[in-house]
Amino acid sequence: MLGRDAELDVLRSVLAEVDRHGAAVAVHGEAGIGKTTLVDELRRMATAAGFRVLTCVGVQSETRVGLAGLHQLLHVVVDRVDALPQRQRAALRSALGIGPDTAPDRLLISVAVLGLLEEVAQTRPLLLVIEDVQWMDQPTVNMIGFVARRLAETRIVLLTTCRTGERDPLAPFGMREIRLDRLPDAVAAELVTGLNPAMSREARARVLAEAEGNPLALVELTRGIEDRGLHDATILPDRLPLGVRLENMFAGQVDALPEPTRDLLLLASVNTESSLTELAMAGARLGLGLEQLVPAEDAGLVRSVGHRLEFRHPLVRSAIYGAAPFARRVAMHRALAEALADDPIRAAWHRAAATVGRDEPVAADLEAAAERDRARGAVGDAMRSLERAADLSPDPDQRGRRLGLAAEAARQAGLTSAVDRLIAEAARASADPVLHANLVLTHIIMATNANLPMRGLVETVAVGRAAVPHDLDVGASTLVQAAFRCMTDGAAPAVRAQVEHEIRALGLPAADLRVVLALAALEPVRHAALVTPALQAMAAHLTALPPIVAAGIGEAAESLQVWDLAEQGWSTAAEAFRRDGAVADHAMTLGRLSRVRLTAGRLSDAVSDADQAGRLAEELDLPAIAAHSAVIAARVHAWRGEHTQAAAKLERCRELAPVPPAMIVAGRHWAAGLSALAEGHHQDALRDLEAVMVHPEAGLLVIGDLVEASVRARETGRAAGWIDEVEAAARALDSSLLWMLVHRSRGLLTDQAEEHFKRALAEPGIAGHPLETARTRLAFGEWLRRKRRIGEARDEITAAMRAFDAVGARQWAERARTELRASGLVVQRRTESRLAQLTSQELQIARLAARGHTNKQVADQLFLSHRTVSSHLYRIFPKLGITGRAELRDALEAMQAE
């Protein structure tokens, strides 16, 4: 390890501090610069310090083979999988192919990987080595990145190596970097002299010049001179790029070996595993035996380690593969395909690699492999198999269909950039109208969740209409999606009317759920009498419906202001998606559930759900869901008077969705307006809240805030018109909440307000909206105090204050106390509950633990590792003033009753 003292010192310090915190380090350098040597020295130091070491190596031919790296990394610790929570255990077993297929989401697998590594690190510290990450398969890279961000509280050190000039897929994760430069001249000369003291001065000078300080080049050039007797420097090869020269040197060493040995090395370079057993099985089909590896081992090109064969350097593998004639590579792939009959996925890939041109049977094999990949949760692998199957498909319609399936698999895998490319290729391959409708459905879901530009609504409707004669279900689904887009985008009435026309033209019964959902989304006020009873009839059957249907019912119920059914629909869907491990869909439904709970005034539940949805969405790179969750959290913070936190959430929303859909725009203005209203910035509040009115659904619920802002800003000229609009909707929808807001708003506009406030508070069903009820009581109490009806005023304001205190709306509670003091009643500020010291995630963990859930069960609920749950609990106990889990339930109940 000449010339690497500084780098070794950094690695020693990282190992020494592992009991205080874990760390992630990335080593960058050109081929042959000494990355592998540095890694070997780190392994030696770590082993001496009592670490367990797990390793995986990226291989150029494996970049399209999903989870190849994960299999390498974890195969020696799979016996610890049983220590994981149940769903995480099942997900990882499925991903590794050692258990039943469960189709888990990639985030669930990532959490399981982290949990397994934490479990292994409990007995002794753990070193993870990921070499040549530039060639690592993308699913493994995603999981390593997930782990890298969560090492602070673990006893795990992660080291990755990446070749300079190649893209480092882990760069976005902000790992500490060590950059290996070429050796200084003096150190390079010392290395060469040590390797061959008898080398002539001229040859040594030429080696030093040729190697350019690259340690591998110094060693190989010196070895070549020593092995071949090239003491005359003029016989050295012509100057070429260093990587090419190194590959040529290795290729030359391989050429000197017997032909059977060369064939066996080529077979090993073609295989995506390093298994000697597989090499022997495939070699036997070519008349080759493992004993023919001996010359290659004697030459130092390969070595056997346990049941695996390792190349001396990645350049050896690439040199062998690159120098081989195409026909020989094809023969090797065919031999491996035959040998891997018990592994149909890898066998299909080798058959594909051995195929030139179109071949439907091979394409069908790859499609079948994709189905197996999907079943075990490897949807990224499924995408790659389907894309290659499409390449091999002779029939254009089959090619288009497989590309469409690949696009949907890419969407599920979160490979956003691949989705648009695959959709475009599929659309060019086939004119099948059903295919085009399915492509639109894939695009809509991806663009909605990732906040990407949408196809035009008119185009979506046309595609759905064209598909109907060929496949009614697909065509109808496309049109229903268009209807929901009208709602979220705040589409113009003419567009809504066109979509409604197409829905009715399907000829489906009026009670068909697709018709009901579409009409509720398009014109909830106009169709309320027809669709509300149909939706309410579904309440008893929600758990028996597919979760996506339950979610649709939740969304339709929101637009109809049926808030109890909306919560049932969203919560049923969220729980089903969570149970199934469909994390992306769980995040989406949890975010929408948070909005319903905010409308119900349950601030703690709303922000807890919103924060969890946002965390999951950001992990899955779904910015629209994360942005929506940030908006909901911002409104909760505004209610609580936490205006700095509200502003931070709004800024995060802008970062996530610079060009947001209409629903998020409305939510952003609402949160900003509510915060400004609470702080007394009434002109700012009026401007923001008026912007919410342009959204058909959100504009109904904002009326109470908007009218109050206009009254306080003394700009009430338009207020009566706004109220009339909402009153018409309240009448059609028969919504208690809307009626209360309408009556309260009218009360704010007139000095003769008593009847309006009393009617607002007499509305049936308003108990389900305690915050808006408290706002109404506060407004009524303020009016009564101005009329010098002090006793009645105190009753209303006290009730409002208690309701605000109960849900943590601290600034509104303080406003009520100020009113009570103005009425001559001194009320002490309520002591803040210790619960307020908990983060939303800590509160979720505390509640679940208090219900008797184990750490593993909590981890499964929240998509965390069980060790992370344990760490959170140890922070929660002192915050709540307790010493252990047994006291948790009583402590929470006492604090919530305060």
Tell me the fraction of residues in β-strands, as a range: under 5%
For the biggest sheet, the summary is:
5 strands, parallel
What is the assigned CATH homologous superfamily of the domain at 5-179?
A: P-loop containing nucleotide triphosphate hydrolases
Gap between N and C termini: 65 Å
CATH class division of the domain at 5-179? Alpha Beta
Mean pLDDT: 88
Helix content: 55-70%
Using the 3D structure, state the CATH architecture of the domain at 5-179.
3-Layer(aba) Sandwich
Poorly predicted parts:
230-241
Structural class: mainly alpha
| Lateral strand order in the biggest sheet | 2-3-4-1-5
General form? globular
Compute the number of helices.
Answer: 46
Stated plainly, the CATH topology of the domain at 5-179 is called Rossmann fold
* Rg, alpha carbons: 33 Å
Find the count of extended strands (DSSP E, 2+ residues).
Answer: 7
Outline the structure in words:
- With 898 residues, this protein is mostly helical.
- Among the domains are: 5-179, 3-Layer(aba) Sandwich (Rossmann fold), CATH 3.40.50.300; 185-239, no CATH class; 254-353, Arc Repressor Mutant, subunit A, CATH 1.10.10; 355-431, Serine Threonine Protein Phosphatase 5, Tetratricopeptide repeat (Alpha Horseshoe), CATH 1.25.40; 835-897, Orthogonal Bundle (Arc Repressor Mutant, subunit A), CATH 1.10.10.10.
- Helices cover 66% and strands 4% of the residues.
- It contains 46 helices and 7 strands.
- A 5-stranded parallel beta sheet has the order 2-3-4-1-5, with helices on both faces. A two-stranded antiparallel sheet has the order 6-7.
- A hairpin with a 2-residue loop joins strand 6 and strand 7 (308-311).
- The model is unreliable at 230-241 (pLDDT under 50).
